[in-house]
Design goal:
There is one protein chain. About 6% of the residues have low confidence. This protein has 462 residues and is an alpha/beta fold. 47% of the residues are buried. Helix 8 runs parallel beside helix 14, helix 10 runs antiparallel to helix 11 and helix 14 packs parallel to helix 15. The strands form five sheets. An eight-stranded mixed sheet has the order 8-7-9-1-12-13-4-14, sandwiched between helices. The protein has 17 helices and 17 strands. It folds into three domains: 49 residues; 333 residues; 42 residues.
Length: 462
């Protein structure tokens, strides 16, 4: 019989109950199938489905160094900049902007902004965070959790509870940084390098015949059944990864991961598409396929890196660039929406991926003439798609008069005339909260700043 008090649990109470139930099941030696059946009978189908899913979300981190970050503020401009109608400001589409109606804070979409057709869990958050790092290829001031820990490494450390062959893949240049428990990053030169990671010599030469691959998989699983160490908690993670690897070894993963011509066409990429945009499209295509096969939990990729000081001198190219960038991001989300989450088949991958965009300098939003590198108050910011775990809209922002607002993490309230470098750790902690699927205790393993309850959803939007 379903117990309403359990069925109706939400937020932290729900997560605490799931952890307690899992621990109790382990102490009583209840196998996983029976454990899930008990949850289904006592706490309802939804609770059992939650328990069967991975404890973390996957993540994509777009790092737009060398001035390339400036393109993204055309997709998601500051509210007062887009509303100003001032042709001296760095916005390209006055009268075409759209004010969000379902965000927690005010937010404006440029006409090319992605994800507007998706539900409100895909709304973007703009956090004033970090300081200007002009012409840095691997910026990080806006992507930190404090205490010399990078956001990239913290997310990867949290994701280690969900096994993958290569926990985190980074396309060069990348500065992964450090955090306690973070796995080693696997670096590649480009999207094709990501594909070749899984085109192993072992799978090509040793197990190239399908029957050999199937036999190896069966042998490994039989070995697990005979291995007494398989029940020891200290051995479980390694054995789970090995079991997953056995299933993949011998498959032609390179062919499954490759960005096809049809894929590129869907992303709007053709022979005339600039390489800076083609590279992003290919990386996201391969990332979606790698997520589908559960080969990795996190992908880090560079973006744009073109230092577009003269962008507003050629409005035709500016418009086509922002249109292509928005379409690439939108198609990526559509692809994820069409793929089952391998760690939670009741949901799609679109509901299991957190995205961030940060860079060296967004350039001055108040001056399109030469689009200067300097920003008001030496400010910087971080864009986040938190998939329902992070409150949406602008937290802080650049005003039309050039002043810079930041935010108070415990309340989410606006703080006028602030320093965006001071709010970066809280913004990073909010991203970590989304990756940890709302597990605040896990976030506190890395973050010791003020409460972030004003910028995250304690009861996540589902």
């Amino acid at each position: 019989m379903v117990i309403d008090a359990l069925k109706n649990l939400e937020g932290p109470s729900r997560r605490r109950f799931l952890k307690w139930a899992a621990a109790a099941g382990a102490l009583l030696a209840v196998d996983r199938a029976r454990y899930l059946n008990i949850l289904n009978d006592t706490a309802g189908v939804a609770m059992a489905q939650d328990a069967s899913c991975a404890l973390t979300n996957k993540s994509v981190h777009i790092v737009a160094g060398d001035g390339g970050f400036s393109w993204f503020q055309l997709l998601w401009p500051h509210v007062e900049i887009a509303a100003s109608g001032n042709d001296n400001f760095a916005f390209h589409a006055y009268g075409e902007e759209e004010s969000a109606t379902d965000t927690d804070k005010p937010f404006t979409f440029g006409p090319e902004a992605p994800w507007r057709s998706f539900d409100k869990t895909k709304r973007v958050t703009g956090f004033m965070a970090g300081n200007n790092q002009t012409h840095t290829p691997t910026p990080g001031s806006a992507a930190t959790v404090g205490n010399n820990q990078t956001l990239l490494a913290v997310c990867a450390s949290i994701q280690r509870t969900t096994p993958s062959l290569l926990p985190v893949i980074g396309i060069n240049p990348v500065n992964f940084g450090a955090a306690p428990g973070a796995p080693a990053i696997t670096n590649v030169p480009d999207a094709d390098g990501m594909v070749q990671l899984f085109n192993s010599a072992a799978s090509r030469a040793i197990l190239q015949e399908p029957e050999d691959a199937a036999l190896y998989d069966a042998y490994y699983k039989a070995l697990l059944g005979l291995n007494k160490a398989a029940d020891r908690p200290t051995q479980l993670r390694g054995l789970r990864v090995g079991k997953q690897a056995a299933g993949f070894l011998g498959q032609n993963l390179a062919a499954q991961l490759q960005a096809s011509d049809a894929d590129l066409t869907r992303y709007g990429v053709d022979g005339g598409t600039p390489n800076k945009l083609r590279a992003i499209a290919k990386a996201l295509i391969v990332a979606s396929k790698a997520f589908k096969l559960n080969l990795t939990q996190s992908v880090i990729l560079p973006a744009m890196r073109d230092d577009p000081h003269g962008a507003f001198g050629d409005m035709g190219t500016l418009r086509s660039t922002t249109q292509s960038l928005g379409k690439i991001l939108d198609t990526f989300m559509a692809d994820l929406a069409g793929m089952d989450d391998p760690s939670c088949t009741a949901k799609s991958l679109a509901d299991a991926v957190v995205m961030t965009v940060h860079g060296d300098t967004p350039k001055d939003p108040r001056n399109r003439n030469g689009w200067p590198d300097g920003t008001p108050g030496d400010s910087n910011w971080l864009y986040v798609m938190g998939n329902g775990y992070v409150k949406s809209g602008w937290f802080g922002g650049v005003r039309a008069n050039g002043s810079v607002d930041v935010f108070d993490p415990p309340t989410g309230n606006t703080v006028p005339n602030g320093d965006s470098s001071n709010t970066a750790p809280a913004a990073g902690a909010a991203v970590a909260y989304a990756v940890a699927k709302g597990d605040m205790r896990r976030v506190e393993d890395f973050y010791n700043g003020p409460s972030i309850e004003g910028i995250v959803n304690i009861n996540p939007i589902q």
